[in-house]
Amino acid sequence: MTSIFRTWRRPRGRVLARPVTILDRIAAAMANRPLPTGSSDQDWAGADKSGESLAGADLSGKDMSSADFQNATMEGALLRSANLVGANFRGTDLTDADLTDANLRGADLSHAKLTGAILRNAILIDAILTGADLHRAHLNGAELDGADLSDVDLRDAGLSGASLKNADLARADLRGADLIGADMSSVLAPFAKLTGADMRGTRVFDARFDFADLSGARIRTVLVRTVLNDAELSGTNLSAAVLQDVDLSGANPGDAALPALSDMQNVTWSTRTRWQERYDEVLAHSVPAGSGRFVLNPAATAIDAPIAEPIFE
């Protein structure tokens, strides 16, 4: 019995990871091992927690930089204001976890499950989120500059006020996402799905949306030097947008609510661009640019004044 009772004691100088139940004590005694323990703050930086169960754990404010949480279960964990710079979360379950104000700069969250996770004002600069599930996640005000968001699921996610400058959104699913006031300058989003996305006041400068689906999106903003080659725009509300130096070659505006021609300056289009009933009007205000391409309201009549910041209701 003495040896059994020893297994029930926690190792000296360590803290228990969670409240210990009688079942934990019995399991520890039968396996002749100590009770599960947590670690002191200094143990978390660079720690190997891969595959562990940390569901519901409160790790707020801890320094866990470069720690390895690959394939760990962290559903509902509290990681508010935690230092997670360079941490490994590949394949980790972070469903409904709270990462508000956490620093995840350069962290690897590829194929992580973050459904419903809270990442408000989190720093995700240069983070890797390839194939991650962020369905209904809250990323309002998050910094995602330079992040790899290719193949990510961001359906119905909250990204209002988020910064996505230079982010890779190739094949990302942003259907129904809230992008109000977000900064999407210089994003690469080929084949991205933005059906029904709310892009009022979104900053879209020097971006590429080749073959992207923006059907039904609400775009009340200024698009500058943006490429929409072969993009799907049917049903998109662009009536309050301003397009300057935009490339619509091969795009399908279809039945989109387009802005007035005076709000489309130096817009490139091609014989494959489907203007439908507005074709004659657009052609009358365009000049040939060679190879089946045209420029609507060419630079000679383009807006000379500084571009105003996007305005949204």
Question: What can you tell me about this protein's structure?
Answer:
8% of the residues lie in helices and 7% in strands. It is mostly loops and 313 residues long. The chain has three domains: 1-38, no CATH class; 45-158, Pectate Lyase C-like (3 Solenoid), CATH 2.160.20.80; 169-313. The chain starts with a helix and ends in a 17-residue tail after the last strand. The model is unreliable at 1-18, 37-42 and 301-313 (pLDDT under 50).
Structural class: little secondary structure
Strand order in the largest sheet: 1-2-3-4
- Kindly provide the radius of gyration, computed on alpha-carbon positions and rounded to a whole number of angstroms: 25 Å
Low-confidence stretches: 1-18, 37-42, 301-313
Number of domains: 3
What characteristic shape results from the CA principal axes?
A: elongated
Quick take:
This protein is low in regular secondary structure and 313 residues long.
Reconstruct the topology from this structure.
Elements: H1 2-8, H2 22-30, H3 41-44, E1 204-205, E2 222-224, E3 242-244, E4 264-265, E5 267-270, H4 279-284, E6 286-290, E7 293-296
Parallel strand pairs: 1-2, 2-3, 3-4
Antiparallel strand pairs: 5-7, 6-7
Helix pairs in contact: 1-2
